[in-house]
Amino acid sequence: MYDVLVIGGGNAALCAAISARRSGASVLVLESAPKDFRGGNSRHTRNLRCMHKAPMAVLTDAYTEEEYWEDFMKVTGGMTNEPLARMAIRQSETCMQWMMQQGIRFQPSLGGTLHLSRTNAFFLGGGKALVNALYRTAESLGVEIEYGSEVRELKITDGRFTSALFSRRGFSHEVRAKALVAASGGFQANIPWLKKAWGDVAENFIIRGTPYSNGNILRLLMEQGAKTVGDPTQCHAVAIDARAPRFDGGIITRVDCVSLGIVVNKNAQRFYDEGEDFWPKRYAIWGRLVAGQPDQIGYSIIDSKAMGTFMPPVFPPVEANSIRELAGLLKLDPAALEATVNEFNGAVQPGAFDHAIMDKCATAGLTPPKTNWARRIDKPPFYAYPLRPGITFTYLGVAVNESAKVIMQDDKPSKNIYAAGEIMAGNILGKGYLAGIGMTIGTIFGRIAGEEAARYVKA
């Protein structure tokens, strides 16, 4: 019998396990992935978004609660649980210090991400280093960890968890605990579930993160009477390189040059304003936009002026000396792509181009317009990146309260079930995404879930 059982192995799960253990509880972590692939999507992360009133550590200037909230409202359109969202924003001010106490180190923003130096703290060594630090700390505190352990059944009666059945190395085991923390991610790696929500277009989706986020724990909680929040079609969906692997390609497959050129579909037609806002505030809309195009494919087109001004992805661009040649390599209609580029070039208005600010270099008389960073595509060589929808995590999840307790169908909190991370992020993220906020949600609610679970078992 353990005090606290944590299901999951990423940032939220480890934050919960560490917090519960530091609060005096015995803790077991069940991670479905093998040890070499532990950490869920946290392995691929780079940073978290932090409120701060003054410069601190690697963060510059200040990023107030109200500015954070305004940025958040722009991407979610108000589709959020405001008390939970504001709580996460306020408590994000403590994230860096707490993480450093767990052995995590930070670094200044890298070239190509300098505009995030005020809002986002970057992990030294990236997500893998973050995960390794959290596991080292958890193990040093006496947290027990079982890898390759997939939970098959949860025993819950009248909102009270008693035990879980899990399989490991072909054998079934039952573990009893006084409290449960579910931190096992969304259902994004479950293609049949995605197809139920999206239809057959989901066959063309690429899953950026772990293949182990199959939604099993979410499904089990739903079957046992947990209340859900979120739309199953809402998710963190990014335009990534169409040549990426089906699973686990991570952040290096993201294509960050969308705002520096134009994006066309398979008919060589533009379909959205590429300059609507800074990339960290708008990159997560492009997965859904590409998903809405024929065959769920798009192409980011730039010229040589843009090269070197964005974080390069892992795959090299398709390169050609003319737009017509580029179209041929992409198997697009050459005349149609030439016409689209010529129409765009003719609509670009004079201005002082500066990709570091909202420069208002825009088009005129063009539909859709480009409202910032509009610059003629006219200097060879020309480059293109093929794009597919890259799903990071889904927003359908379990409802929670400010103590991270799972809410049941009768709108009452469960007695001893808590949730953290992607499995409950839909409480805060009704739609859209803000760079780094997923890690913020996981860290804050992981800490809360662990502390509250320990408090419950010690009461």
Automatic annotation (TrEMBL):
Cofactor(s) recorded for this entry are: FAD
Name the keywords, alphabetized: FAD, Flavoprotein, Oxidoreductase
Q: Where is the FAD-dependent oxidoreductase 2 FAD-binding domain?
A: 3-436
For this protein, the record's Pfam families field holds: FAD_binding_2 (PF00890)
Superkingdom of origin organism: Bacteria
* Gene name linked to the record: tcuA
**Name this polypeptide is given:** FAD-dependent tricarballylate dehydrogenase TcuA
